[in-house]
C-alpha cells in the first residue's frame, strides 16, 4: 500500500512491507494446510450469519454438519496416523486448527473436542485395539465422542476427581459410578447431543486398591438414545460457543468390558492384576495427562488467530474512520493518526506477532515430541511448561485485544455483524478451559522451581512448597542469587556493572537481559519466600497463599521472556531487507512495551532509573509512530479471508 | 456473619460489620425508591430467563411491556414534574435507575432511552407546549420515543453532524433531510420498532444561514407504520442489549411544523427570524448538550451497580468453592483464602465502594443543578466534568470487574444461568454510549486546562490547543509548577519537604496528597507540552495527537482523586464503630491499590522510592487479608435481591 510519508518522523527511512513475502514467512512450512483451511472457511463463511440466525438447537446441528464436512476435506484429521485415514502430521494438525480460528469459534471448539480431546485420548491413551475400533470412524466424524474429565467439584484439580471405576473380576467389567453430585462430569463438549462414546476419567479401584485416575471408553448413547445407567443434562445456554453442546453426565453403575480401559500406560489382567510400565503413580498420572498438551497448544494458537481477526477489523476501521478536525481547515483526522489510538492498537499488533512466533516454537516442539523425533522426558516437561505458559498468555491476550478492538470501533463494534460480539463471547472461556490460566502458570512455576523433578509431578502446591523448601531450595537460591544473576546478564552485554544503564534501548540483548533478570529475580524471590515462610509457619497452605501472586508473576515473566526470544530469533533469521526492518521495529515495540508495562518492578529492583523509564515510554510512543504507516500491511499479512472479516461498514 | 478469626493476622481486632446499617448508609436518602425498584425487580425477575429463552422479536416486545409495567409503579417517572404525572425528584430518578441495573440491562437501557434521553430532551430542551403535549403520555410509556442524535459518520463529535433542518418560511415548516448516507442516524434505541416520535438533532438553516445543531420533534411512525419520508432500518443483533430495538433512520425532506423545534434555548419566529437567549453559538450548543449530563450520571451509576452483581456472585462462590488441598490432611482450601484470589477480587470491591460514594456526590450535584437549588454556570460546568469523568471510570470499572469475576468463577462463570454472560455482553457498550470514554476524558481535561472558560466550550481539540497555548498557558503552568505543587501538598502534611517519605501509608492526607500531586503534575505537563509543541510546529492536530495519551491520563488522575475524596469524606462522616473501621480499611485498600497501580509514575516523578513502593505493595496485600473476612458482608450490604443473582450452583 501507499503509505503517507508525512506521518513518519523526519529523517527516518520508512520500510515498505512486501505483504506477500511476509504472509509466507508467517504461514511457514504449513502454508498448504493453512490455505486449505482458508478455502474451507470461505466456502462455509455463511456459518457466521447462521450463528446469529439459527435457533439454539438448529445451530448445534449446523455446526455438527459442518464439522463432518470439514473432516471430509482432510483438514481435521491431519494429526492421526495415515493407516487409519489421518494425515500423519501433528504439526500440520495444529496449524490447521490455528487457522480455523479465523472463523466461527463454535466450529473450532467442536473440532477440538472431537478430534483433539476425544480423538486425541483414543490415540494417545489407547492401544492398537482402540485405534482400530474407533479411529477410522471418528476421523470422518461419523462417530462422535466426548472427553469426560472435568467435574463440577473439580475443575483444574483432576487428580482429585470423584468418578469411580471399580473392576469386577467376576464379570471382567469395570463399573463406573458418579459417587456424589459434585462428581458429575460437567461442561463436557459433545455430551448434550452428539456423543455416542465418552472417554471417562475415573478413579480406578482394582481388588480393593485405589490406582488413581484412568481413562475408559464408555458408550453414552446407543442409536441416539442415552445409554442405560447414564444420565445426561444439557449445560444450556452459555456466554458463547452455543454451537457446541456442552452437558453434564452421571454414571450409575455403568458396566463396560475390561477392554474399555485405555491401556497404553496401565492395564488390568482378566484376573484383576494391575500392570503398568510406570511404577510411580504420580508419574503415571502426569504421563497420561501429558497427552493434554496438544489441546493447550491448539487453544494458544487459536487465541492468537482470534486476536488477529479483531485487530484486522479495528485497524482497517482506524484507517478510514475520521473523527474531529485536526486542523481548522482540514478534514477530520483518521483515528489511527491519533497518538492514543496508536498506543491502543499497535502494541497489540506487536504482541500478536510475538505470540505467533512463540506459537511456532511450541508447535514445532510438540511435533517433535509426538512424532518421536525429539521425545525424551526432559523435552516433554519443557513442552508441557511451554504449552501451559503460551496458552495462558495467548488466551489472556485474546481477551484483552478483542475488548480493546471493540472499544476502538465504538458503537459500530457492538453490532453483531462486525464480528466482535461473537469473538468476545466465544473466546472468553479460552482463559479457563484446557486448564485455568492461573493454575497453568502455577504449573509453569513449579517446573521452573523444581527443575521438572519427575518425582514431584504432583500438581498440588503442597508438593512444590515442600520440595522447594526442602532439598532444592539452596540450589534454587544459589542459582538465582542476585550476584549470580547480575553476572549472567553482564556477560550478555558489554556495559559491565552498568549494563542496564548504558545499553541502547533497541539492543535486543538489552531487552532480553531485562526480561531474563526479571524472571530469575522473581523466581529466586519465590524460593526464598517459600523457605522463609516454612521456617516460620508450618502450614504450607498459608505459606503458598501468601506467595501465590509472586509465583504467578514469576511464571508470567518466564513465558514473556520465551516469547521475546522467539520473536528476536525470528527477526535474526529473516533475510536483510525492508521486511526485516519492519519486523525489528515490531519486535522492539513488543519488547519495550512489555518492559514499560512492568517498569515499576524494574525500578523497584534497581534495574531502571526514573529517567530511563521515561525514555522507554518515549521510545514506545516513537515506535508506535514508526509502525503506524505499516499497520494495514501488518494485518493484511495474516491473510484472513476477507469474507471472514464481515464488518461491511468498518473495513469498507 | 460469623467470620473465621484464624484468617485474620495476629494481634489485629477484626471489625464486625452491621450489614443492615451499612446497607442503609449505602442506600442513603433514596432508600425508599431503591426498595421500590428492588421489589419490582423481584416481581419481574423472570425477565432474566426470558432474555435467554425468547426469540429476538419476542424479547423486544417483552422488554417494552415490562418498561410500561415499571412505569405504572412510578419508578421510572421520578424525574418529571409532578404536574405531568412525574415524581418531581431528579435525584430519586437517578437512584431508581442505578438500582434497576441489578436486573436485566436491556430493561435498564430501554428505560434510559425512553425516560432519560427521549423524555429528558422533551423536558429540558422543550417548553411548556411540548411538555403538555408529550410528557403525560411518555411518562406512562404509552408514547414511545427515541433520541436521534448519533450518526454513522459522527459518533462523539455531535457538533459536526450532517442531518439538515431547513426552515421554510412559506409553509412555516422545517424540512428535515439526511444529507448523505454517513448522516443517517444510527444505533438509535427504540427506533427499530417502538418509537412513534423522534427527537432529531439537525443543523438548523434559517434564511440561508447556518445556526448549528438544534433538536426537533419528528413523528417517525403513524399508527405503527413508518411515516412518509422516513426510512428505518434495524441495527439487527448486537453483542448484548438485544431487548432494545436499535435502528438507523433516514429523513427525506420530512416536513414538521415550526412548533416542532424544541425551543427552550432558541426559536424561529413564523417569519423566519432566529432568536436565542444565548448569543454565542458554541455556548448555545453546549448548553443544549448539557442536558445530556443526566444520561451520563445515570450510566455511571448503572455501571457501578452492574459491577456489584458480578462481585456478589464471585465473592459468594469464592467463599464456598474449594480447590486443591492447602495442607495434606485438610480439606481443599476455599478460593478466597488464596492470596491471588484476594488480590483479584478485594481491590475491586474497594473500588466499587469508592465509585458508589463518588456517584452519590455527582447525583447530588445533578439534583441541585437541575432542581435549581444550586444552578449556576460554574456548577453546571463542574457537574458536566464530574459526570463525564465518573461515567468513564465507572463503565471501565464495570467491564474490568465483570471480566475478572467471570474468570474467577471458572467454567461455571461461562454458563448463561450464572449472570456473567448477560452482564458482560450487555454492559460492554457502556464505555461507548453516552459519550466514548476517551472523548469524555478529553472533555474533562479541557475543562481543567481552560478552567471551563465559557468562550471555549467547543469540544474540538483545536480550541483547547489554541487556548492553552495562547493566553492561558502561563497561568496554567504557573498554577501547576512543580514548586507551587509541592508547596500545596506540603501544606497538607506535616512532613515538610519529605512529606512523601515520612507520612504513614494509611494517613488519608498522604493518600490524597499523592493523587493530587499526580493530577496537577500531569496537567501542568500537558500544558507545557502543548505550548512547546505549538512553538515548534504549527499543526495543532499533530501537537494534540502527540499529547493525547497524556491528556487522558491527566483527566483520569483528576477523576480518581475526586473518587478518593468522596470515599474519604464518607468515611469521616460515619459514626465511630466497626462499620467505620471496615470502611476505612476499604478506603485504604482503594487508595493504596490505586497508587500501586500507577506506582511507576510516582517513582518516575520522584514521589516514591523503590523501598516505599514495595512497602505499598505489601500494605495492599495486608489490607486484602484484613478485608477478606468482611467480603461476604460487604457484598451483602449492597442488598441485591437474591433472585437476581441467579447462579444456583455458585451462590448456593
From TrEMBL, chains A, B:
Domain of life according to the entry: Bacteria
UniProt keywords, alphabetically: FAD, Flavoprotein, Oxidoreductase
Acyl-CoA oxidase C-alpha1 domain boundaries: 290-449
Family, as annotated: Belongs to the acyl-CoA oxidase family.
Stretches assigned to the Acyl-CoA oxidase C-terminal domain: 507-648
Organism: Streptomyces alfalfae
Stored InterPro entries: ACOX_C_alpha1, Acyl-CoA_Oxase/DH_mid-dom, Acyl-CoA_Oxase/DH_mid-dom_sf, Acyl-CoA_oxidase, Acyl-CoA_oxidase_C, AcylCo_DH-like_C, AcylCoA_DH/ox_N, AcylCoA_DH/ox_N_sf
Location of the Acyl-CoA dehydrogenase/oxidase N-terminal domain: 32-142
Protein name per its UniProtKB record: Acyl-CoA oxidase
Coiled coil, from the record: none
Domain Acyl-CoA oxidase/dehydrogenase middle, chain residue ranges per copy: 146-254
Pfam families given in the database record: ACOX, ACOX_C_alpha1, Acyl-CoA_dh_M, Acyl-CoA_dh_N
Cofactors, names only: FAD
Amino acid at each position: 500500500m501507499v503509505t503517507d510519508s508525512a506521518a513518519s518522523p523526519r529523517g527516518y527511512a520508512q520500510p515498505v512491507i512486501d505483504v506477500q513475502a511476509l504472509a509466507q514467512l508467517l504461514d511457514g512450512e504449513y502454508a498448504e494446510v493453512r490455505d486449505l483451511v482458508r478455502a474451507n472457511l470461505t466456502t462455509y463463511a455463511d456459518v457466521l450469519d447462521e450463528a446469529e440466525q439459527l435457533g439454539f438447537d438448529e445451530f448445534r446441528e449446523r455446526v455438527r454438519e459442518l464439522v463432518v464436512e470439514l473432516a471430509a476435506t482432510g483438514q481435521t484429521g491431519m494429526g492421526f496416523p495415515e493407516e487409519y485415514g489421518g494425515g500423519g502430521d501433528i504439526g500440520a494438525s495444529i496449524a490447521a486448527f490455528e487457522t480455523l480460528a479465523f472463523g466461527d469459534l463454535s466450529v473450532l471448539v467442536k473440532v477440538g473436542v472431537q478430534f483433539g480431546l476425544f480423538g486425541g485420548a483414543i490415540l494417545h491413551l489407547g492401544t492398537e485395539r482402540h485405534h482400530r475400533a474407533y479411529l477410522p470412524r471418528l476421523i470422518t466424524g461419523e462417530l462422535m465422542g466426548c472427553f469426560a474429565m472435568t467435574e463440577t467439584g473439580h475443575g483444574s484439580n483432576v487428580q482429585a476427581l470423584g468418578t469411580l471405576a471399580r473392576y469386577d473380576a467376576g464379570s471382567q467389567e469395570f463399573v463406573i459410578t458418579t459417587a456424589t453430585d459434585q462428581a458429575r462430569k460437567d461442561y463436557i463438549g459433545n455430551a448434550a447431543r452428539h456423543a455416542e462414546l465418552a472417554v471417562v476419567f475415573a478413579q480406578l479401584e482394582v481388588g480393593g486398591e485405589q490406582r488413581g485416575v484412568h481413562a475408559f471408553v464408555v458408550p453414552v448413547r446407543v442409536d441416539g438414545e442415552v445409554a442405560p445407567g447414564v444420565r445426561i443434562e444439557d449445560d444450556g445456554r452459555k456466554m458463547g460457543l452455543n454451537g457446541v453442546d456442552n452437558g453434564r453426565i452421571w454414571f450409575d453403575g455403568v458396566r463396560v468390558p475390561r477392554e474399555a480401559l485405555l491401556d497404553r500406560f496401565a492395564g488390568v489382567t482378566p484376573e484383576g492384576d494391575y500392570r503398568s510400565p510406570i511404577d510411580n503413580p504420580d508419574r503415571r498420572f502426569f504421563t497420561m495427562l501429558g497427552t493434554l498438551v496438544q489441546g493447550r497448544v491448539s487453544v494458544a494458537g487459536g487465541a492468537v488467530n482470534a486476536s488477529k481477526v479483531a485487530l484486522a477489523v479495528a485497524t482497517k476501521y482506524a484507517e478510514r474512520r475520521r473523527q474531529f478536525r485536526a486542523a481548522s481547515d482540514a478534514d477530520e483526522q483518521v483515528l489511527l493518526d491519533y497518538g492514543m489510538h496508536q498506543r491502543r492498537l499497535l502494541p497489540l499488533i506487536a504482541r500478536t506477532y510475538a505470540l505467533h512466533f512463540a506459537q511456532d516454537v511450541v508447535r514445532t516442539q510438540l511435533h517433535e515430541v509426538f512424532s518421536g523425533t525429539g521425545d525424551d522426558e526432559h523435552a516433554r516437561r519443557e513442552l508441557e511448561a511451554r504449552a501451559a505458559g503460551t496458552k495462558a498468555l495467548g488466551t489472556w491476550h485474546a481477551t484483552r485485544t478483542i475488548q480493546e478492538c471493540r472499544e476502538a470501533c465504538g458503537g459500530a463494534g457492538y453490532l453483531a455483524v462486525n464480528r466482535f460480539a461473537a469473538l468476545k463471547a466465544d473466546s472468553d472461556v479460552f482463559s479457563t478451559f484446557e486448564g485455568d490460566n492461573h493454575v497453568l502458570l502455577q504449573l509453569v512455576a513449579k517446573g521452573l522451581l523444581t527443575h521438572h523433578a519427575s518425582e514431584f509431578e504432583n500438581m498440588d502446591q503442597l508438593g512444590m512448597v515442600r520440595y522447594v523448601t526442602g532439598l532444592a531450595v539452596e540450589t534454587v537460591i544459589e542459582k538465582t542469587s542476585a550476584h549470580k544473576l547480575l553476572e549472567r546478564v553482564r556477560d550478555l552485554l558489554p556495559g559491565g556493572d552498568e549494563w542496564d544503564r548504558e545499553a541502547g534501548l533497541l539492543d535486543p540483548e538489552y531487552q532480553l537481559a531485562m526480561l531474563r533478570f526479571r524472571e530469575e529475580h522473581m523466581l529466586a524471590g519465590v524460593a526464598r519466600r517459600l523457605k522463609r515462610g516454612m521456617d516460620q509457619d508450618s502450614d504450607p497452605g498459608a505459606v503458598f497463599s501468601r506467595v501465590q501472586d509472586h509465583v504467578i508473576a514469576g511464571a508470567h515473566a518466564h513465558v514473556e521472556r520465551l516469547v521475546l526470544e522467539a520473536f528476536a530469533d525470528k527477526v535474526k533469521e529473516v533475510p536483510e531487507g525492508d521486511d526485516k526492518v519492519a519486523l525489528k521495529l515490531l519486535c522492539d515495540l513488543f519488547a519495550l512495551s512489555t518492559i514499560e508495562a512492568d517498569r515499576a518492578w524494574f525500578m523497584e529492583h534497581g534495574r531502571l532509573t526514573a529517567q530511563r523509564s521515561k525514555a522507554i515510554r518515549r521510545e514506545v510512543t516513537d515506535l508506535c509512530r514508526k509502525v503506524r504507516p505499516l499497520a494495514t500491511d501488518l494485518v493484511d499479512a495474516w491473510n484472513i479471508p476477507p469474507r471472514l472479516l464481515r464488518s461491511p461498514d468498518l473495513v469498507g
